[in-house]
Amino acid sequence: MVPPTAIVTGGSSGIGDALVHHLVSMQWRVVIADINPPREVIPDTLFIRTDIASWQDQADMFKQAYAWSRRLDFVALNAGVDDRDDIFGTLSNDVNEPPQRPDTKPFDVNITGTYYGIKLSAHYMTVPSTEAGKRNAGGKIVITASGGGIYPIPILPQYVASKHALVGLVRALGRNQATSKANVRINAVCPAIVDTPALPPGLVSKLPPDQITPMSTVIRCFDALADLTDVGDEDWVLRGRTGETLEGNGDELIWHRPPERRGGKFVRETGMLAVAQAYKEKAERAAV
Ligand SMILES: NC(=O)c1ccc[n+]([C@@H]2O[C@H](COP(=O)([O-])OP(=O)(O)OC[C@H]3O[C@@H](n4cnc5c(N)ncnc54)[C@H](O)[C@@H]3O)[C@@H](O)[C@H]2O)c1
């Protein structure tokens, strides 16, 4: 029997690296998918150089990861980058100097790359893996969004937009009937400020210490969302949480529900059923 197997994108540094060590300490096998190699060789891990913004890179990585373990139980879609453009800071005031195409890497990596990861995870989690000792098809995904996926950070509009998108993806997919039928669970962790190489130099020394979130809080969030300690149980996925957003801030774990409906009729349950039915019929017509 092969031990439970995980993929961690962005696993060579910061939060991803801490999660890899946490998983290995609990006897998981872990694929580290990153554009950069880890600083040290970690037993029971396999590093696969991957740019998550490239479909081909990710598809090749998932294929290689599955060939290594013949099972996939958990995926942390964690790699992410921050802003690469300054809309208003680059205005020329010259009609003959319109803006250049902006760098939209945060959307390409954080949204598109993560979406690719969900699609590939769903495939490899649901292919038969009984020979490797996995009893039920399915698996769990945790996406690293951010406090910036819940609150605005005015200096980082691209980052905030991309992380809000990830919370939206989790809220929609986590409660989608097809996701549930495939026995896949998907949740989002939203860390506040954690001391990692991603932060601009000098930021940590400018902040009061109680505004820095310990890495242990972020790891507690992963455990709370995906119950990583209890994977041997047959119902591990079936009884797992889904569609949840959990903020890790200081020592606190704070659950965020979608905003309450304050009026309007469109998004009520009956409306949602009609919307789902209409889209299903549209897809069926397109397939004929
Ligand atoms: N540090 C924080 O305060 C904080 C807070 C909230 C959310 N986050 C999120 O946590 C995640 C991890 O960030 P971190 O703070 O650990 O940063 P980090 O820079 O320490 O680690 C990010 C890792 O992702 C890798 N990476 C970057 N682009 C990639 C790509 N296209 N394909 C594959 N790998 C890529 C990097 O090489 C690096 O190893 C990110 O999604 C980040 O937005 C961080």
Topology:
Layout: E1 5-9, H1 14-25, E2 29-34, E3 45-49, H2 55-69, E4 74-77, H3 105-126, E5 139-144, H4 157-173, H5 177-181, E6 184-191, H6 203-206, H7 215-226, E7 245-249, E8 252-256, H8 269-287
Parallel strand pairs: 1-2, 1-4, 2-3, 4-5, 5-6, 6-7
Antiparallel strand pairs: 7-8
Helix pairs in contact: 1-7, 2-3, 3-4
This protein binds nicotinamide-adenine-dinucleotide.
Nicotinamide-adenine-dinucleotide (NAD) binds at residues 9-10, 12-16, 34-36, 50-53, 78-81, 109, 113, 144, 146-147, 191, 193-194, 196-199.
Give a quick rundown of the structure.
The protein has 288 residues and is of the alpha/beta class.
Please explain how this structure is put together:
The structure is a single chain. With 288 residues, the chain is α/β, with parallel strands linked by helices. It has a single domain, classed as NAD(P)-binding Rossmann-like Domain (Rossmann fold, 3-Layer(aba) Sandwich), CATH 3.40.50. The chain has helices at 14-25, 55-69, 105-126, 157-173, 177-181, 203-206, 215-226, 269-287; strands at 5-9, 29-34, 45-49, 74-77, 139-144, 184-191, 245-249, 252-256. An eight-stranded mixed β-sheet has the order 3-2-1-4-5-6-7-8, sandwiched between helices. It is globular, with a radius of gyration of 20 Å. Bound molecules: nicotinamide-adenine-dinucleotide (NAD). Belongs to the short-chain dehydrogenases/reductases (SDR) family. InterPro entries: NAD(P)-bd_dom_sf, Sc_DH/Rdtase_CS, SDR_fam.
